[in-house]
UniProtKB/TrEMBL annotation:
GO terms for biological process: phospholipid biosynthetic process. GO terms for molecular function: ATP binding; kinase activity. Keywords: ATP-binding, Kinase, Nucleotide-binding, Transferase. InterPro entries: ATP-NAD_kinase_N (IPR017438), Diacylglycerol/lipid_kinase (IPR005218), Diacylglycerol_kinase_cat_dom (IPR001206), Lipid_Phosphate_FormReg (IPR050187), NAD/diacylglycerol_kinase_sf (IPR016064), YegS/DAGK_C (IPR045540). It comes from Deinococcus peraridilitoris (strain DSM 19664 / LMG 22246 / CIP 109416 / KR-200). Pfam families: DAGK_cat, YegS_C. This is DAGKc domain-containing protein. Gene3D superfamilies: 2.60.200.40, Probable inorganic polyphosphate/atp-NAD kinase, domain 1. PANTHER family: SPHINGOSINE KINASE, SPHINGOSINE KINASE RELATED PROTEIN. Residues 8-136 form the DAGKc domain.
Length: 301
């Protein structure tokens, strides 16, 4: 990956914190204190909605700020990347969410003290972003069971249970879920699948500590497409391990079309859920600047 010059630690920097993230309000004061202790002059700003966040980030891009610190979970970071991608302003991650998948994929420590030290001493580099129907995503796009689970997760449940919210809610959703009928088309072929779960990953991590594939990376210039089992719940349950008799189909692509043959289905883009019958996915290689550890290697995180 190409790297930009190091950013001076004395550079004044904006810290944007999502008030709705799991540790947003409670983590703000500690994040400011830790960043200040690391030698950074910080301007903290709490945002309450997407429009407020976008206005702030566009202002940072317009003034060509070398980087902006974003405190929140994967949804907040994904929206920020939509503004910062292809700009001269890099993203610095302060992990205040539940799963913090993107932080894991770029080697950011999950403890705030470690993240603050990284921001003060880190190296800016370029990583890939995905686009789905024109919207930037960092981690993954999912159709099927995980999207239904994400739809059922409330902020209160996530705040109370943390990562345990997924299995708790998932056990309730699993038995009422119906399989999908999907047409997939990429530059290398076309497929028809009957499955309970489709995942398109940009990064290594897609749900907290869960990995898409052992070699997936935010720097490999490809999307990893995973189809979990066939239309039976038994086949879905058999994919807990890779050695499960070929129950996971793995495809790589630079572009992908996904069409539901039965109308609208639920989709999750970095945790944001909506209904659709068609997805158009592409990859933008090295489109986003991110502060990473000096020894960062996307293939080994």
């Amino acid at each position: 990956m190409t790297q930009r010059p190091a950013i001076p630690s004395a550079q004044p920097v904006t810290l944007m914190v999502n008030a709705q993230s799991r540790r947003g309000r409670t983590g703000l004061n500690r994040a400011v204190a830790l960043l200040s202790a690391a030698g950074l002059a910080v301007r903290p700003v709490i945002v309450h909605d997407v429009s407020q966040a976008n206005a702030l980030l566009r202002a940072e891009v317009a003034r060509e700020a070398p980087y902006v610190i974003v405190g929140g979970g994967d949804g907040t970071l994904s929206h920020a990347a939509g503004i910062l991608a292809r700009s001269r302003t890099a993203l610095a991650v302060m992990p205040l969410g539940t799963g913090n998948s993107f932080a894991r994929s770029v080697g950011v420590p999950l403890d705030l003290a470690g993240a603050a030290r990284l921001i003060a001493d880190g190296t800016p580099t370029q990583v890939d972003v995905g686009l789905v129907n024109g919207r930037v995503f960092l981690n993954s796009v999912a159709l099927g069971l995980s999207a239904e689970i994400a739809r059922s997760l409330t902020p209160g449940v996530k705040r109370h249970l943390g990562l345990m919210a997924w299995p708790v809610v998932g056990s309730k959703v699993l038995w009422r879920h119906r399989a999908l009928h999907l047409n997939l088309t990429s530059e290398s072929g076309a497929w028809v699948f009957h499955t309970h779960q489709l995942l398109v990953a940009n990064g290594r991590y897609v749900a907290g500590p869960l990995r898409a594939t052992p070699l997936a990376s935010v720097a490999d210039s490809q999307l990893d497409i995973l189809v979990f089992g066939n239309g039976s719940l038994v086949s879905l349950l058999q994919v807990a391990r890779w050695a499960s008799g070929g129950k996971i189909r793995h495809i790589t692509a630079h572009q992908l079309s996904v069409v539901s043959r039965t109308g609208d289905v639920w989709a999750s883009v970095d945790g944001e859920v909506f209904q659709t019958s068609e997805l158009r996915l592409t990859l933008a290689p090295q489109a986003l600047g991110v502060l990473v550890p000096a020894d960062f290697d996307a293939r080994s995180v």
